[in-house]
Amino acid sequence: MSAVLLIAIPILAAFISIIVKKWSPYMLLFVSFGLVILLGYLPFEIITIGGFSAPYGISLVVDNYSYTALYVVNVLFFLVAIINVCNYKKLGTILLVSLAGLNGLMLTGDLFNLFVFLEISGISAYIITTTNKKPLATFNYLVAGTVGSILYLLGLIILYNMFGTLNMQDMAVRIAASGATDIEVALPFLLMFIGIGVEAKLLPFNSWVKGILGHSNKLTGPMIAGVYAAASLFVFGRLLTEVFVISDTFMLIISVILAFSILAGEAMAYSSTKVREILLFSSIAQAGIAVLIFVSGFTGYAVLFISLNGFSKVVLFLIINHATEVVGSDEVIDLKGLFVNNKLVGASFTATVLSLLGLPLFAGFFVKMGILSQLFSSGDYVFPAIILLSSVVEGVYFVKLLTKLWYKEDNLPQVKFELPLVYLVVVISLLLVVFGLYFEPLHEQALVLVNHVKGVIL
Amino acid sequence: MLLYAAIILMMLGLYGILTQRNIIKIIISLNILEIGLNIFIISIGFVNGGVAPIFTGQNNLGSIGFVDPLPQALVLTAIVIGVGTTALGLALAKKIYAKYGTFEIDDMKGAE
Amino acid sequence: MASLEFLVIIALLGGVLAYLVGKLSKVVGASLTVLVSGFIFVSVAYFGLNGSLDASITYLPFVSFEATDLYLGTSFGILVTFIFFMVSFFNPYFVDKFKYPSLYSMFYLFSLAGVLGVFFTDDFLVLFFFFELVVWTSLFLIPLGKSKKAASWYYGFSAFGSFSLLFAIFVMRNTAGSFNINDGLSMVGGSDQILVFILLMVAAFAKLGAFPLHIWLPKVLGNSPDPVTSVFSGGLEKLGAFVAVMGLVKLAPVGPVIEAIDMALGQYLIAILGALTIVFGTLMAIRQDDAKKLIAYSSMSNGGYILVALTLLNDTSVSGALYHVLIHALASTAAFLAIGAVNRQTGTTKMSELGGMIHKMPVTYIVYLIAIISMAGIPPMGGFVSKWLIFQSVINEGMILIAIATFFGSIGSFLYVFRPLAALFLGQELPEFRKVIKEAPFFMLLPMIILSGLNIFTGVHPSVILQYINNVLAELGVTELGITTWTLSGNNGDLYPALIAVVFGVGVVIAFIIFIVLKKSRKVDLMDTYTAGNFVYTEELLHYSVDFYAPIERLYEKHINIMKDFYKGIAKKVQEFGSFVKYFFFTNKPEITVLWVVIVLGILLLWGDLL
Amino acid sequence: MIISILMGISVAFFGFVLQTSIAGVNRKIIGRVQKRYGPKWYQEFLDIFKLLSKRSVTHGWIFDFGVIMALGGIIATAMFMPITNDLMAFPGFDNFFIFVYLIAVGMLGMAMSASGSGNPLASIGVMRALTTMLAYEIPFMIIVLTIIKLTGHSSLSEIAMFQQTAVAGLEFSGTWFMIALPVGFAVAFLSLMGMLGKKPFETYIAPAEIASGPMVEYGGKQLGMLFIMHEITVFIEVSLFVHLFLGGAENIWIFLIKYFLVYTSVNLISNVNGRFKIDQVVVFFYKWPLLFAVMQAFVAIYLGWVI
Amino acid sequence: MESTKFSLLTKEEVDRKWWEIGDFFRRNSLWMLMYCTGCCAIELPPAMTSAYDMERLGMGPMATPRQADVLLVTGYLSLKTLRRLIYTYEQMSEPKYVVGIGSCTINGGIYHDSHAVINQLDQYIPVDVYVAGCMPNTEAVMNGFVDLMRLIKSKKANGWKKYHKNNEWYKKNQIDSLGEVRVKDEFHD
Q1: Residue C513: is it exposed, middle or buried by C-beta count within 10 angstroms (0-12/13-18/19+)?
Q2: Angle, vertex CA C62, rays to CA C58 and CA C64, nearest 5
Q3: Which of A171, C73, C74, D304 could anchor a disulfide with C48, C-beta 3.0 to 4.6 Å?
């Protein structure tokens, strides 16, 4: 039982489902559930495809980092799939292909292979977003995504030209050995940074996000904001920790981009009146924070942050998108008093928001404390200040949103949440509360990941 | 020399995407960008006086200056992916045309 | 041997239980809060006073308490739990008017748990954990009242305060290596110490509602439901005082010493800000028409007193500050409860709509009278002792500007506390309330009477409590206040509070004898007054309550909401910045991303040779 | 304890008798100033006892309780007042702040019963009284702050002793503060006129505007008791002024002379003045008196220039 | 036989003694209500100024009926003024005295045949002292006050007792001529 099955099974199921159209949704469910079970027995090893050793063949790396990433992405994928399987039947094959692409992204140890899986998951993402009925927005996404991956490929090729290898670990070793000055290495890394940055929603490169998530539905919202966001941030993390050598000028540009992305994200969320816009701008800010942590080198808490963020975004977007479908518009005024007569969903929405804000009794608090303590211990005072300031602004607009959603007397929006969604949402928010109170496992997971040193396979 | 051609093509592609308002023209400039990139990848593998990297009867020794085979393999996948994206782009263009009746982004009403 | 951790768990579980019971019947759920907070107060007070609170931890994962010689935490803890217990009597009566009654009881007990945690821990991270818990649980209590926007104002300011506290905690951890409070505060030095001082002061100002960060106080206290307002002004503001004590007393004075008044520059700036808080609080309180907003501004100005007293760092001032914390808690809670009782009967606290409440609610009137006597600092009540101590220290240091502010505050407090008394309770009895109103039920009167009894006790025999405060002074390393069983000795004079009360009693007896000996007067209806011969039949005409202090208000009418516009301006700036970025980065054109990619690439390429 | 309380009551009674008779004498002096004979010297006593003998009206229990509390508070304050160096009821406990704040009890009692009477004119009168108090109190307190800072004591008798004998150790002892702090004396004199409610600052008992302000609804014994309270308040404020600025008194005669001089001078000045509007009173006290008070305090405390 | 030197006074004797002492004080500090109805009021300022100096007798003006003892009715009384006068009279604290100045209060004076003025004040409220003269001289007014003092001394100035005793008579007269004393909306009827 090796990791390749994680990619092979979904691809195989995708082709079969083309032939047998009407079974594709059930096959989707069966495969994604199967993969989640399969993950239990995955050995930690490097699989070289076709026997060629590292620099020549493609290798799949299964270490602690990619194992956690796989777990999060597959579980999220499965949850989103269950909710949306009944009313998006014809997307079965596409979802299977995107599942394969995502698993490939997590596993691959080879840079060009990463480009290929990036494109596969990207194209399936474009197709998924066509369900938004906004073709122009999807077109933007397509153009942005393709340009991003082209730049990534360009950077990749320059690196290959300079160091002759495409394997991540090998590349890291060769860069260290060759003693290349940081300036020379800066251009390819910046190109790759921009390439992945488009997908990871960093500010200057994410103009497509507003179009896509602004008009998302119950499938594209959680999928893009939850699953794909988590996946792209994991990839970003792997690249930043494994391969990149960041010189001080390059670091300056990245930190300016990140700081701007965090603060501007919060400001935009503060200034928007549509609920979905508030959520998407706040997820832009959170993406900025995640990349910031990776750049400062604390993979442990970054992974926890991304997974928590992924789960919360799935919950938030599911609830809001469902409500928008029923009410017809996602303006805050129209959704006012949404939770008055569905209290359970409201309670879980509130719990998830509070965990995002990092308030005590919720898992978000522990992760935020971990991030801040590590940032402070590395003697950096500027970024914690930015993070704290942004969480104040974030707190204000989320509280404003919550009070509006909970308090309204007359003509409340008639929204009914069906059972599976309610169960999913309540389970996740309970998880957040449980991990908030008893966060020993989170602590160990963070410690295990912290000593995931560059180039060493655990 | 091939390198410079590739870079010029890529600049042309980028320029095309930046300035064109027509959906189809954007897709075409996207293709130009990809072709530029593929040529760039090919030019990386060039070895002066190299021979096509296929083992035949007379040149099966490692010492003969083979041209680097790896970029050519990469280009193959890159081209296929380029085709994939262009196909999806055209499908979207058809849908946009069906919805807005024009390819010009500027005069698409209600695009927001 | 009540263990603190056991109490915190009881509070949390009690909250959940209150929620569940609340689902069945609102009133039972709310009365559960009375039982739980009562139990917690009794155990904290009983075990805390004879120092036998055990701090062992079995269940809560990373929490660490410490209760042995922690007098500061115990005194604050007992005070705030007492306020929670007293106010909880009001819950059953008010809970049926709330939109989410069971949630109210749950969050009420959660904030109690948070408060308990803050005062009894010696570890900064645990302090911040409970600090934030209090913030967000009390946050959801506010919208149950009139205004929803108040909650976001409250969260904005207290989040700003608690995050600056967090920043200070981590800065201290860098030097001290561990999260221990005492090491952290003592070992931090140099430029870090200034940074920590500023941040702690920002946290204290945000929570206390002092001058620069005071906008949320009247909005929140004015609009939230009555029990919540009393808990806020009596209990939750004391968190700010607790952080202020940490920042001003435990932390060594910051900045160069000004030799004229031998005070550190940092302390002097805080004293100036405290003085400004007093003046602005008083000025704004004088012109309020809503009684709750008026008392809210009064607690803001009393917060200013506490800050001024804490910065002077001699025996009378710090003991005066701590005693004032106690007095202000008791007096303002009693005042808020009294106004709450009126609000429950009439439905409004606007003074222009009320009048003559004394005829139907005499006990509430007496409670309010005793509360304002203490708030104005008039002798028989506790307020006089604490204000006397603060004046002793201010005069001893010879700081003229701050003395002006304190005198203005104490006389101004007499003015604005009298306004509700005259406009709300006395004056003509308005006809629409005459039939409807009846005295508050017994269980609402009970806490009010207890609080007024305490107000009197703290005024007549203060040395009992001042004795305990001396232990706190010893713990803080400040020289102790000279107390004998009955008299206090300040810097330049002694005070015999019991004697004043006795003499006042004697005076009243003499006046009563004069009154009784003479002929009995003829009882006349209120409407039969001297109206220069005109016949007046409507009560509203003869009730003077609108624009009570018109001559003073006219002086500063034009520039009242400078600070409010300042903060609204900031909010607008953030909004503009957001829409500006949105305009630039999120148009619906595909080439935007490519444009920014090219720009970033250009910057890096040109970086090398340009800079 | 009982003896000192009896002593206190006798001090209060002495204060009442002294002030009432001096007030009668003053009415005679004012009469003479206006070229008429003026009433008998004991006219004030006659007025008070006439009022006590009349049967008047009450508006409810708060109306009466307020009057009792007012008179009781003022009697209590008077009991603390030292007459001469050794003639005082409670040696060592006659702190300055007790006087300032116990007078506030009297004020509160009267204000409470006035508003309880239900007459709008009374409430307006009370509002004006409190506003004027806010105005004249601040400069007075600043000057007293300087005195307490210079003498190091806040009890009246010590301050008086400080001014009488020149003690070697203490720097400014021996000279009356009237001479030592001339500007302070002038400001305090103005605030004393405000405290006594004499003509320029008589806005709260303005008979023409608000029909004698708070006293609108009082008649008979309530008014009589308020008159007694007014007399004792004047006694407290004037003797406070005497102790703070004129160096107290070694024996009773000096006290009587100083007391008479101060009260008569205030009365004479007040009789030639018209009446301020209420806004003018507040603005007046916050312009020059406050400025001079702060200047005097700054000069005296920090620069030490005391004559 | 009991000793005559010191006999225990009965209750009424004690009261009477107190009343006499009270009369001494009431006599020597008469406060008049500044309520001038007609033209004879012009005589009062000279009585207060230095020429005649009313203060000498212990008299002084007071602002409200609650505080005043003497009600000076100076000059003619129209129906509207009479209503206010009666309302003010009832607001005064006992024992109270009324001094009718000018002939208009005695028999209507020069307006005796006018439709709007009452002729005899005595019908409506008890009057203790009259000062005759169509605008009596200030001396006459002062003399009236001294007469009032003498009446108080000899316990004859008990107009207020008469008002209590035969109250119905006074009320009937008032209703006859005025319709009703406490009118609701006088200016529009």
Answers
A1: exposed
A2: 70
A3: C74
Q: What pLDDT was estimated at residue C69?
A: 67
pLDDT per position as a tens digit, B80-89 = 999 999 999 9
- Nearest residue to E86 (alpha-carbon basis) of E181, E184, E3, E188: E181
Side-chain-facing half-sphere of E47: CA atoms under 13 Å: 24
For residue C247, what is the DSSP state? I
Q: Is E58 in Cβ contact with D34 (below 8 Å)?
A: no
Instruction: Chain C: give the shortest CA distance to residue D18, in Å.
Output: 19
Q: Where are the alpha helices (DSSP H) in C97-148?
A: 101-120, 124-139
d(CA E44, CA C491): 60
E182's tokens: 């406490």
Residue E146, both tokens: 């001294």
Res. B27: pLDDT tops 90: yes
Chain C nearest-CA residue for B106: C589
What H or E segment, with its residue span, contains residue A146?
Answer: helix A135-163
The CA distance from B33 to the nearest CA of chain A, in Å, is: 8
Which of E65, E91, E182 lies nearest to residue C535, judging by beta carbons?
A: E182
Element (H, E) at E99: strand E97-101
| C vs E contact (3+ beta-carbon pairs below 8 A) | yes
Instruction: Among C495, C523, C552, select the one facing D58 at the smallest CB separation.
Output: C523
pLDDT digits (tens, 9 = 90+) for E86-144: 989 988 888 899 999 988 888 888 888 888 888 888 889 999 999 988 889 899 999 99
Q: What is the DSSP string of C276-302?
A: HHHHHHHHHHHT-SBHHHHHHHHHHHH
CB pairs under 8 A between C and D: 247
**Mean pLDDT computed over every residue of chain C:** 88
pLDDT at B84: 92
Neighbours of C56 (CB within 10 A): 11
Residue E92, both tokens = 């005064």
pLDDT of residue E3: 52
Judge if ipTM > 0.95. no
* Chain C residue numbers touching B19 (CB-CB < 8 A): 591
Q: Answer whether C414 sits within 8 Å of D301, measured CB to CB.
A: no
> How many domains is chain C partitioned into structurally?
1
Task: Using CB atoms, pick whichever of A207, A373, A407 lies closest to residue C148.
Answer: A407
Domain of B25, CATH number, reads: 1.10.287.3510
Please report how many Cα atoms fall inside a 13 Å half-sphere around the Cα of residue B31, on the Cβ side: 13
Domain membership flag for residue C262: no
- Number of domains into which chain B is organized: 1
Burial C264-278 (b: 16+ CB within 10 A, else e): bebbbbbbbbbbbbb
Which stretches of chain A drop beneath a pLDDT of 70?
Answer: 1, 53-55, 180, 182, 450-458
User: Once rounded to an integer, what is the mean pLDDT over residues C550-558?
Assistant: 86
Res A457: pLDDT: 43
In the prediction, which pLDDT does A455 show?
A: 42
Query: Of the candidates C379, C387, C508, which has its C-beta nearest D102's C-beta?
Result: C379
User: Are D131 and C552 in contact (CB < 8 Å)?
Assistant: yes
Q: Are C533 and E64 within 8 A, CB to CB?
A: no
Q: Which helix (H) or strand (E) holds A387?
A: helix A382-406
Give residue-wise pLDDT tens across range A80-133.
999 888 888 888 899 999 999 999 998 888 888 899 999 999 999 999 999 888
Q: Domain E23-183: give its CATH code.
A: 3.40.50.12280
Using a CB-CB cut-off of 8 Å, the residues of chain E touching D216 are: 63-64, 66
Spatial distance between the Cα atoms of D38 and D29, rounded to a whole number of angstroms: 7
Stretch 42-71 of chain E: residues touching chain C, C-beta under 8 Å: 64-66
Domain boundaries, chain E: 23-183
Low-confidence spans in chain D with pLDDT less than 50: none
Q: Which residue segment(s) compose the domain that D93 sits in?
A: 2-303
